[in-house]
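hiii, so i know i said id send this last week but things got crazy w the move. better late than never?? heres the sequnce for the chain we talked about at the cafe, plus the structure i predicted for it. fair warning i was half asleep when i ran it
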Amino acid sequence: MIGKVLVVDDEMATRQSLADILRLEGCQVMTAEDGERAVEYLQKESFDLILLDLKMPGMDGLDVLHITAKIAPDTQIILLTAQGSLESAIEALRYGAKDYLLKPSSPDQILRSVSNGLKRRTETEQKHFIVDQLEASIKQLKEVEGRDASVDANAKASAPSVITIGRGIFVDLDRREIWQDDQRISLTPTEGKFLRVLLNNQKKVFTHRELVSMVQGYETSNWEAPEVLRPMVSRLRRKLAVFPGGENWIVNVRGTGYVFEGEEKRVS
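okay and structure toks below
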């Protein structure tokens, strides 16, 4: 059993007994003799679980419960209560306590309750992690979509759709078509977007990761990006090879990415 536990009880014998039981099971344990000291610890350190005596002089268990809910809401709380204060313990469950133990409880009962509490704590942390990952992924997707939209908007705003490459070879980026005399080919949306990026940034070398982000719309690792692009670039080169010099327009910069090397001219 692994976890950081705070034992709060005004009876020294009870504190020591609970601490010994939990330490034997592998828990890291701290003890507090009253509510005030417990709150001091909570303000300085984080705990997975608190074993909290309900009835204590001064700041009692309910007070500590309310404060814990504000400063450490994910901390699991198990109440320790005598038979006479059972109704108060049940009431405390409505304010965030997860379980209660009647004094005196057997070591097995204590360990069972603490084990369940630590499992709930782990599940809560896992849920927070998943939510954080999802939020980060959504944010990343929005950023990629924003960059992608910006690239498309800038490309369309900065130049006409039709471009000439070499002698009498025309590229219509909006229609995704390339022709020379009666020779005409069509591009897929991905091929068209890839070619638009390169044509609008002639002589500029784009890394594999940049191209995947701008063309495909998602992020990849340095080793994944070339594998994502390679099949598409191969198909595109085969299409371009029907035009004079077309097989040499898209140049692979070894270990880096791609660059467009054809001579292009904008058509008004």
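btw The chain has a mean pLDDT of 84. thought thatd interest u
miss u guys!!
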